[in-house]
Structures
1.
Amino acid sequence: MTRRAWILGLIPFLSACEGVQNAMGGQGAEGSRFITLFISFAVVCTIMYLLISGALIAALWRRRRPPHTVDERGHHRTSVVVTPALIGWMALVFVGLTALTVASFFTDRSNAADASKPALTIKMTANQWWWDVEYSPNDPSKTVRTANELHLPVGIPVHVKLQSNDVIHSFWVPNLAGKQDLIPGRMTDATLLPRKIGLYRGQCAEFCGVQHAQMALDVTVESLADFKRWYAAQLKPAAPPTTSLQSAGYNYVTTRECSSCHNIAGTPAGGQIAPDLTHFASRRSIAAGALPMNKGNLYGWIADPQSQKPGSKMPTVGLKSDELHSVVAYLETLK
Ligand SMILES: [Cu+2]
């Protein structure tokens, strides 16, 4: 094989080492331990496979009749000869399996140690097809509610309590940690300990209906100072409108259809069954990662959500064009 062919063959593997949704990224404590464990298993099992295959081929190549005896009735009996080579093989298999068992045990202990000292608690509720996110759910003075995004301080273990409102979903941020199912009627949990600042993408990992693929999560891992700044901004109520167009949008959103499902802190909109919109415009995407956050997508999503994400519970309301302009103008102020 030429050098060029080797490099071309390696491209898919090398490109998989980068990216916002990459199980081999290793930007979280649990994720990097799993990678180490995976590589250990792969190396030990590959060595075993090659040695055993080689021994099998050698045995077939040098095949001999096994030693046997003939008893008094004339039956042929084969006897197994325990040679040093056979003992060596058994020892090798024993050592390999024991090493993998010990490695698994210590990986599990390390993950459990992280989970025992969380500095922050987040409650995540999965819905078809979006994520409701509540920081510090047990302290109303510090509770921050957002949707379809996670902000995490780097180097700090975070306890994530998981529940589902409808069907089974699965919480998975591949760069940081393994998967954890969310089961209706049962609280499960996960621990995230991000080690590298960056933007990552979570994805529901359990088929949960027609828009399962568009049930994503924007994850921002940042410094503790940046996280505190974000948290302080999220604790504030929504900013009031400043222009007449924004005011018209405010009046529409807080008194018409939108307010029966969506909450906007500091306004009469108090719906609880759809994503909280208090700081909606500060997010990176719309509709659980379905569309990047920008003015064009905002128009498209609000005018006709069913054409953007068919089956979603956001109805196509049929806004007149002046209503649409004002609603978009108001939503853009919710930073
Ligand atoms: Cu899903």
Note: The mean pLDDT is 90.
2.
Amino acid sequence: MSARNSSDPILPGSTIGVLGGGQLGRMFAMAARRMGYRVHTLAPEHDTPTGQISDVEIVAPYDDLDAVRRFAQDVDVVTFEFENVSTAAATAAEAFAFVRPTGQALHVAQHRFREKTFLVKNQIPVAPFAPVRSDEELQKAVTSVGMPAVLKTAAFGYDGKGQATIKDETAANAAWDSMKRQDAVLEKFVNLDREVSVIGARGVRGDFSSFAPIENAHANHILDVSVCPAGLPEKLAKEAIDVTRHVMEALDYIGLLCIEFFVTRDGRLLVNELAPRPHNSGHLTFDACRTSQFEQQLRAICGLPLGSTEQLQPAAMANLLGDLWQGGEPNWAAALAFPSVKLHLYGKSEARPGRKMGHLTALAATRAEATELVVRARDALTRR
Ligand SMILES: Nc1ncnc2c1ncn2[C@@H]1O[C@H](COP(=O)(O)OP(=O)(O)O)[C@@H](O)[C@H]1O
Ligand SMILES: [Mg+2]
């Protein structure tokens, strides 16, 4: 670690290290390079979405600790766009550079059982849950949590991968077998009114800022459309932001954190999960807010003042999954014919079904109009 004080700002011209190679790192790198920073990235693949925008792309597995050490030696601060980096890798990097958020925060957020246990310890409401690490625990969990429920692998799940909705103990057994009996969590199925997310940022002196809650609609467990403002009563919006601040303080967090919330039909707010990085739902901040979530991540990890999160206009974001390529190249001109729709593509060459290839953002006078517009623009992509 350099001799500098941890609260000294890391100024433009410095080098940021991004662990991970996906679109979150790509948009972060765009924000960082715009402000005159250099960006190095490390990921197991070559020509990644992040690597394409970085000054230096290192191709190495995250558990190649020598590679992680060499990577950290060349940068001033390390951050993440991918949360499943091991604690060992984060610790290896910490010997040479600031790591923000810390490996400790990552350790909590990357494992559903640890995460939920941490939340309960901090008096934050979550859906009823129980750990599943043996047949006995599975049986006990089915009784204590109640049916229907969702069985989720404790680690490495994303976009609904590694989860199954179950109705009884037989189904629970079969689902756990198909997860190869990895450590899992059984969680009560929540009757959802809606889902929202809050993206918070916390700086090196404990300064906090958040974006307004964003409302998220999923299709096949993958985020489909996000819209801001969310249709949330003022009291719940405030509560969601208070919870976000509380969680970040409890983790002594530096950087950007997104909390996914469930809003139950009886009007309660439950935390679903934490993402210790920018979040898909926050992509609309790129076009709709004074400061994007990516610039805010940069400011937070560099010890700079946090930017204004003020939203300029209601906005909606629609994901573009690989499925859209099934009938050939999407009709980009048709979507771009909507003058207030913005196209973002992540530079991925292979369009697999369910793979996040890009997104569209629409700005409009109301949230309903923005949503309608972004969905119409996405529909236009498959018009040939
Ligand atoms: N307990 C639950 N009750 C109802 N819906 C759920 C539950 N858990 C997950 N879901 C649905 O599946 C989506 C993905 O689940 P999540 O736990 O956030 O995993 P991932 O890591 O894949 O994002 C959620 O956003 C929600 O739409
Ligand atoms: Mg999720």
Note: The first strand starts at residue 15 and ends at 19.
